[in-house]
Design goal:
homotetramer; 387 residues; alpha/beta; Dihydrodipicolinate Reductase, domain 2; six-stranded parallel β-sheet; 17 strands; globular
């Protein structure tokens, strides 16, 4: 659709680091690829340093900039606030934005504590009554291969799920000389590998299976307990985990294992998910993100085997909006797909997914992992998860 | 750099189908990811249907539109013309643009005949004297894994090249019911799989090896000789090849084999390149475009083997401009990388690569393939290629 | 060496089912491929049914047969007794054989209980004083790729081990219609997936790392609790686990996760082992048993990546005895390699490996897994494992 | 079946190097795994050096040895002669053996010239009338995955074949310091990579497709023209090819490309075969010999993809005789499968496959490749191949 005959949706971005750059690219690109009912318009970028914010706005395609996210709340041209700051500020910004009647997209992890997440979920529920929408940014749900995995599970293609094994392996902290950053500070980041990347595999598991994690037995560890300070001589204490392992059970009765590590040498971004059901199996690795492996156990033994589906066909989720078959997508396309879905939901007056309730569910699992790990691996039920 | 302190480069696009959409995305995105000396500004889009051109301009991010590419030639705000039309119009537009002092980016295949390509290369050479630059759009040169392959060859990591095997396999014409399109008409497309995708593997081979193909022995075939007309009942004749196979020799003495097919069932975009040199080997498959496989033959047998390099490190070509290690790129990123290099070359007053001379070299190989195939596979030397 | 100038070693086999067939092939083949100091001679096969034993002896290459393993104990032509019966008979036969001065090769799992395993280990220790040797048949230690993995770890190529993830996935019990067999009866088999295939990944982990598992937190489950009786109508209760998952810690401080399942649809024999150390990583999958993947983290980022080592070079463990490079081995070759090592150790007057003490160590981990699983996943230390 | 109630088949082996060792293992093992109608008995081994032959016989399991293959011809206990000598002696031995009424198994390449191969095929045809059988040892036909590939083609699962690409890549001659051996001497070996490994991909193509290669366009080259003498100082001339590339056409109209090289660094035994048909595709790599990749093009796009069939199921060719699903076979198992089929055919009074006529067909393709390469790649029809 052309720009003239559509209602616009004014977007404001808070934060302009890694995630801000990814979201800017998505907002800048989405209207060229998707047939959207409303036209998103990047109107403002907020950052604490006015000069840096202005520079970022110019480079990333935002029409204006402000030095305080609060200045966005009463602007009429802002319909949606997209939160790309560290986790400890999410609750305050999101709740204020929802109260001000702005739709909210909030990066993951949604919060640093269950209490914050509960407050956010409550605010989102109330806002929805007033037609104000919210979404948490588990962008991997919009990787076409994972979206296809969910569809195949929902279609019953793998039957009842008996096993999930989910790992997320990176290695950027393998070197003990890697400096201490805010991500290694429990007060800023909440936790380490657990919340940073473990949150992704919990959400991906719940998304693809359509089930909840109902309990866990966990083990956390920190291999490098001191790291060089980033801004001068000396070392400081690492107060978060390097690695998190936990066993879990799904609401449908299946067994699951999870591992998140930032010291797994040679693995760069290996979010791997494997599901074994009574009728088939699925396997995925984010390092080869355009592929989904599917075994159909109902097929005869002569030709049964894991097949590599190149998830780039027009019939696959999202890919029809992009390039011809076989022309793969990259990391950033998931964000563009995400904001497309968000705009479509807002225009349709529907709640987008994943909701803040979904974000809260993940937060509760993260919390149970820490409780179990502190209690010698004792099985710990997830509050509110239906067994 | 911010927008205020940089010279701008006005860009105009001709054509707004598949390639026009890809190029628009690149021009719209490049300044957010790369530190460019000049700031590209998408000023105008040209298309024969004024209404469609205006709609496309709005959606794809161009400030204005015109209904004839000739109207771009004397506009002061246009510094570069980006040609995304079918091959039979490339020569006319490119030569006119260069004559008008506009830099040119021309999609591949650069031309439909050697004569056209020679005229274009001559025009480009003359324009370069006046500081007007030209580039042919073999975008795969900017896939990081292929760029890394070239670097490793240039560093001598695989030694003298003895073997290249290059295939480009697709399957969108496997079904005899797929309709007759302009791509199956020799007058519009020049040739079939040969020029469409065979051109890519010729250029990729010459780019990665740094050598020229000096002769070929070829075989062409068309499996489906009639196809349904797209706009009504009845069938029409297919006048191009479905598949092209040829053996070749490189200027350094190595042997090469090439195969391009659009009827290879199950292969969607399988541009595969494998090189065996005296000191090592490389392998690449565009269906897994973030990976390069490298065997170091100088290593001892205990641990030697093909290693899968995930070409996403900051030290790899182009990837430092994008996302953290392990976060892969997709099809479109190659175009963004391409226009970044083009802007940098123009600002530096240097000739970008691949040049129109490179495009001509590919065209001469395509021509020799057709000559050889028509003469029972007889060895046919490539005009101008140094043995 | 020729047959005339070498001392012989008389071999007797107990059992002639799956494992007996594999061991027979090994004993029949080993002298043709390895340069052995002594010549093994297959002299007798024992089986409870005299007729079946005689038939099996003829077919599998044994010179004679007996209907009771006890008849082997005082035969002068029997130097070694190879035990291939179900686990509940291992302790009795092995201890009697050792007491009779016969060397013993005992299939895994070495025993059904820790008490049996302790008795066997004690008997083996006493026998060794008298020059009588014993070995437990964890044949996967002799898969060349796993033996190479151990060598690389021992050489320090991956540094200190931080992570092990070990799974063994099969699917032959995924179908609820698969009949009840002795392997599903706790009294005969000891446990289910845990002892059958979980034992392999425990041993493989301890072998490759050279470290001990010091504690576990576990979860067991049985998905199909009743199965058809094999010999008539009706169903019987399954009294063992279908799947076993456990987290563990290694004596060097690393973290490990384990999963054994016989209901993982599409996975046929997927013993997968991945290790991440401070200097590198290794990965293996028994379904592609001739390959070992190695990442050298000390290499620069330009070319670092997991390399696929085809473990078939003359320089690799065992493979020099077989075929030229690139000509892979299969499942049975590990048994031939195993008995070669056993004969060499006996001739050299040395204790072969893995010892009955190694078998006991695995049994203690299996036991701790059951204790932990019965106590809500509580962390359970392994008796005797050095932290 | 037991040894007492079956007719025996006396086997004699000529040659005891690499192939002799592989065949001995097969003859020694086959009766333990396959239910054979007749019982093969290894009665004699022939080698020119009496001492070496005796030693080899002892080690490889042959009951006796002779110093001249001619001494086997009138022995009543010899029913079959298995020829494992270099190619230049095949014709003489095979024809003499057939004339003497002995069944013959002859290693590949069947002969060094078309004339020899024609004489052998004629002798085999005449012998068959008298119930004397002959087989040429293209053992890869008995790799289960390739046998399954043939079955799927024969079942029509990939439809009409449009493309075959077949390569056989090794690297043991990449090093110019590798010594001159008889395999590099045209008089002994006939040709280089072409006959040694190119013969395998020609036969595999004709076997799997069920079609004949009807013509070729070829290119041969020798990169290392002099090599060190094996037995002293100095160098000698290499008189065979290092690499052979050729394009071909199949009797069903499909296109094929072939490449054989012994200088392809990093590739150890990469016999790769890929077929694209109108209804599907198949891919195989001997370096992962237990896997066959199959794409079913009749399936919908949601889940279509190349599936990795682990060819180890009881329902797959040959594998039911061996181990449980997922337990892979190695290089030598193909020989055991081969002699099983041979014994079964002889007992059934049927001609085994591949016949000497099949061996001749391969020889004619090899010959046409050399003719075409010597004539600038000119298309050269294969004598006797039906277009």
């Amino acid at each position: 659709m052309t720009s003239t005959d559509r209602r616009t949706l004014g977007i404001a971005l808070v934060g302009h680091a890694f995630m801000g750059r990814a979201h800017s690219h998505a907002w800048r690109s989405v209207d060229a690829f998707f047939d959207l009912p409303w036209r998103p318009v990047p109107v403002a970028l907020a950052g604490r340093d006015a000069g840096k914010a202005a520079t970022a706005a110019g480079r990333l395609g935002w029409a204006s900039s402000v030095d305080d996210w609060r200045k966005l709340l009463d602007r009429d041209d802002v319909d949606l606030i997209d939160i790309c700051t560290p986790g400890d500020s999410h609750a305050e910004i999101a709740i204020a934005a929802l109260d001000a009647g702005k739709h909210v997209l909030c990066e993951k992890p949604m919060a640093n504590t269950v209490a914050e997440a509960e407050a956010m979920a409550a605010a989102a529920e109330q806002a929805a009554v007033r037609g104000v929408r919210s979404m948490v940014g588990f962008s991997y749900r919009r990787v076409p291969a994972l979206a296809l995995a969910r569809n195949l599970v929902a279609q019953g293609r793998i039957g009842a799920i008996r096993h999930v094994r989910a790992v997320y392996l990176q290695d950027w902290l393998a070197d003990p000389g890697a400096p201490l950053s805010w991500r290694l500070d429990r007060r800023r980041a909440g936790s380490g590998a657990l919340g940073d990347i473990g949150a992704h595999i919990i959400d991906a598991t719940q998304f693809v299976t359509g089930e909840a994690v109902t309990g866990v037995s966990a083990l956390l560890d920190t291999f490098v307990t001191e790291r060089p300070l980033p801004d001068g001589p000396g070392h400081g204490a690492v107060t978060v985990d390097d690695a998190a392992l936990f066993l879990g059970r799904l609401s449908g009765g299946g067994l699951a294992s999870f591992e998140a590590s930032r010291v797994a040498t040679g693995r760069k971004n290996a979010l791997r998910l494997e599901l074994n059901g009574t009728h088939g199996s699925l396997a995925f690795d984010l390092e080869a993100m355009n592929e989904l492996w599917f075994h159909d156990h109902t097929e005869g033994p002569q030709t049964a085997g894991f097949r590599r589906i190149l998830v780039t066909e027009p019939e696959h989720p999202y890919t029809g909006a992009w390039w011809p078959a076989g022309h793969g997508l990259g990391y950033d396309h998931a964000f563009t797909n995400e904001v497309a879905d968000l705009v479509i939901a807002i225009a349709a007056g529907k709640d987008p997914s994943p909701s803040f309730a979904d974000g809260l569910a993940v937060q509760r699992v993260l919390d149970a992992v820490e409780v179990s790990a502190a209690d010698a691996g004792r099985w710990t039920a997830i509050a509110g998860a239906q067994p």
